[in-house]
Amino acid sequence: MCGATEGGLPLDGVNVAKEAIVQGQVLRSGEPVGNAYVRLLDKSGEFTAEVPTSASGHFRFFAGDGEWTLRTLAPKAHPVDKKVVASIGSVAEVVVSI
Questions:
Q1: I need a labelling partner for 77 at 20 to 30 A (CA). Which of 5, 26, 36, 96 fits?
Q2: What is the pTM assigned to this prediction?
Q3: Please, which residues bridge with residue 59 across strands?
């Protein structure tokens, strides 16, 4: 059984057993970054999806099994790439520091 890290996004209504979830938070100097963008790139680097972060810096993707790259874009910051592995039945929690 797997769930989100304490303080992460709630998973109410999400059947984690049937999903490969990648979620997390974007931080700058330990503070949440709202209105950043997080892109989901496949193993070959192709763009798959993009979401804005919430006011609390949180984001979530429902991905397929496999290796992914999260590319975070935010004002006054260089893009940050972070590798993540998603698998059905688990939640990959990621903290991105910019």
A1: 5
A2: 0.85
A3: 24
